[in-house]
Design goal:
By secondary structure, the chain is α/β, with parallel strands linked by helices. About 30% of the residues lie in helices and about 25% in strands. The chain is globular. Bound molecules: adenosine-5'-triphosphate.
């Protein structure tokens, strides 16, 4: 279980972007983290991944991944944790690739850090995994530089890497928001299939995600989790959660369907 307690993120001007956020993510569980733009979803994911901007400080009373107390790890062990135990699917896949290196070298490097297999085995695994996410002409993809592939293809490459590594927990930050409609549907399907191997925490405004059968939805406002819905009994009537009435979260008994 990935367990977070009282997570706060504070700016160097003493402004709290995240306030006392707590949740658990179990293996093979699917959680959506949603709320208006700017409420702090990405900041929570960055805090977990240790990739916050330099002007931000993070505090938590507990950050545990199974039996590992992450707050006590040194940097080397943290790097391994992020390759092997926790994976990230970013909003903009271009940001995670080195623009100067081929897709082949970057996939092989990821497998080297996280898996105890040699280069030949890594290449076989890479080809298998790229095929499994419906990428054709695998050899051409492997020889490509990141900018030669579309956003949808790069997002598939990241998913292929993660299916190969099988991290116990995967965080995805608005993973389809930068994609066109055709790619969105295909990537949503692939992402949801990751639930058979990993715990998944997905931040999203996307109603296609929100209407699928997840285990829990965490709803945020102003840096706090204000509502937790078990299973998905939310029936979204919005194309975008940003259109929700500003007062909704002041009501004690929040019902998604009330708002339109
Ligand atoms: N380094 C930073 N310094 C100061 N404020 C920041 C910093 N990074 C983010 N913020 C602010 O923190 C708040 C939360 O931002 P965040 O990107 O986490 O929101 P979000 O819910 O993910 O939004 P979106 O849905 O648009 O991606 C915003 O008001 C943002 O301007």
């Amino acid at each position: 279980m990935l367990s977070i307690r009282e997570l706060s993120v504070i700016t160097n001007k003493d402004e709290a972007l995240i306030k006392d956020v707590s949740f658990d993510l179990h293996r093979k569980e699917l959680i959506f983290l949603t709320g208006k733009s700017g409420c702090g979803k990405s900041t929570i994911l960055k805090a977990i991944m240790g990739s916050l901007d330099d002007n931000l400080k993070v505090y938590s009373t507990k950050f545990q991944v199974d039996d590992i107390d992450v707050n006590k790890l040194n940097n080397r062990r943290k790097r391994r944790l992020y390759g092997k135990n926790i994976g990230l699917i970013p909003q903009n896949p271009m940001n995670v690739f080195d623009p100067r290196k081929s897709i082949r070298s970057q996939i092989l490097e990821s497998y080297k850090v996280s898996l105890d297999i040699n280069k030949k085995q890594s290449l076989i695994l890479a080809k298998d995994m790229l095929s499994s996410v419906n990428l054709k002409e695998v050899n051409i993809i492997l020889d490509s530089l990141p900018h030669e592939l579309s956003g949808g293809m790069l997002q598939r490459v990241i998913i292929a890497i993660l299916i190969g590594i099988k991290p116990d927990y995967i965080l995805a930050d608005e993973p389809v928001s930068a994609l066109d409609e055709d790619n969105k549907n295909e990537i949503i399907k692939l992402l949801l299939s990751l639930k058979t191997q990993s715990g998944l925490l997905i931040t999203t405004h996307n109603t296609k995600f929100l209407s699928c059968n997840n285990d829990k939805t965490l709803i945020m406002k102003n840096g706090k989790i204000i509502k937790e819905e078990k299973r998905n009994n939310l029936k979204p009537v919005y194309s975008d959660i940003n259109s929700i009435d500003d007062n909704y979260c002041n009501e004690g008994d929040f019902k998604w369907t009330v708002y339109k």
